[in-house]
Design goal:
- With about 210 residues, the protein is of the alpha/beta class.
- The chain has a single domain, classed as Vaccinia Virus protein VP39 (Rossmann fold, 3-Layer(aba) Sandwich).
- About 35% of the residues lie in helices and about 25% in strands.
- Strands 1, 2, 3, 4, 5, 6, 7 and 8 form an 8-stranded mixed beta sheet that branches.
- The structure holds S-adenosylmethionine.
């Protein structure tokens, strides 16, 4: 993430948060318990949405500029968490360590989504949950999808490797997650190219 994107991230997302994303975060995270890992925690937008009383909360963020903002937000928060410099593709925890994992607006940016999902599957206990909010490819053949394809090379260059045409629901299923709990939706007030989205809870099959 370049310096400008990291600096402006919270400000550029403020309208989207107010239009519904913050409510989604609340709904998604409200019932979490046990040991939880969040990948690509960014500036800590989920931090205030976690319920109190988790056994352990690990926030991973490989980008130093985003991680500095995450540390600053954590210092102002009543939540307790461990911040880790680790990519989602390599999580330094044993198999089955976590009860739940969280990925919000991250699988668009990771260099290797299959490796990241494989790693999340590995560190979750059997039956554990992966909670996701991700923007995704528009329906094939629509103007939305064509526009995403056109814009993607430039967009990913200026927006921290953010890809517009990933079929993340399919990748989740391919990685061995049970995806019946996913819902297709729209990120209101987001730029049109990142409006198609999915949200929900998928579980690690045994
Ligand atoms: C659009 S931001 C989302 C931040 C936060 N999750 C949120 O909901 O606002 C994407 C984040 O993914 C992080 N990221 C990029 N590649 C990653 C990887 N391989 N593993 C984990 N996080 C990664 C970026 O550094 C950035 O902080």
């Amino acid at each position: 993430m370049n310096r400008l994107s990291a600096t402006l991230y919270d400000r550029t997302m403020a309208g989207v948060e107010a239009a519904g994303l913050a409510t989604w975060r609340d709904e998604l995270l409200a019932d979490l318990e046990g040991r939880v890992v969040e990948v690509g925690a960014g500036t800590g937008a989920n931090l205030d949405h976690y319920p109190p009383g988790l056994c352990e909360l690990v926030l991973t963020e490989p980008d130093p500029r985003m991680r500095a903002r995450l540390h600053a937000r954590l210092a102002r928060s009543p939540r307790d968490a461990t911040v880790l410099d680790a990519p989602a593709e390599r999580l330094p925890y044993p198999d089955g360590y976590f009860d739940a994992a969280v990925s919000t607006l991250v699988l668009c940016s990771v260099p290797d989504p299959a490796a990241a999902l494989g790693e999340l599957h590995r560190v979750l206990r059997p039956g554990g949950s992966l909670l996701v909010i991700e923007h995704v490819r528009g329906a094939p053949g629509t103007w939305s999808e064509r526009w995403q394809r056109l814009v993607e090379p430039l967009w990913s260059h200026v927006a921290g490797n953010c890809h517009l045409t990933r079929d993340t629901a399919r990748s989740l299923a391919g990685a061995g997650f049970e995806t019946a709990g996913l819902r297709a939706t729209n990120l209101e007030r987001a730029p049109a190219v990142i409006r198609p989205a999915i949200r929900g809870i998928v579980s690690r099959s045994t």
